[in-house]
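Researcher: Next sequence.
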Amino acid sequence: AFFVAVSQTIRRKTRDETGALPYSAVAYTSATVVLWLAVLIVRPSISGFAADAWVFILLLALIPQLVGHTSINYALGHLRVVTVGLAILGEPLLATIYAIPVLGETPPIGVLIGGPLIVAGVALGLSGSRAPVEPQA
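Model: Next structure:
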């Protein structure tokens, strides 16, 4: 949570100066370079996956990363960091809901109990959120 807050704060300041798309392009390119360096150092197996596995890997890159994180970057330019942070708390819950029909997963009892609590907490927090305050010169 600490690193997410730090990341969002840095993202907000940098994104304000560059815009969501240029910021996202630099961030994703940097992450790609760092991850490839890690692959070269650790040398995990990155081949031999079935074709359908590659489709899911591609979908994981496109949907959560490009759509989800770029949307977060855009939102940080228009909403308070606290508001965006609260909304992100719903991400694991939505992923769990998607996993039911897509992967045939059944959520454990803790998720069934905790999920509504997360939704209630996020709703309560977002109901008190306001539009971002314009910085004063």
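Model: The two ends are 31 Å apart (CA to CA). The CA atoms of residues 16 and 136 lie 14 Å apart.
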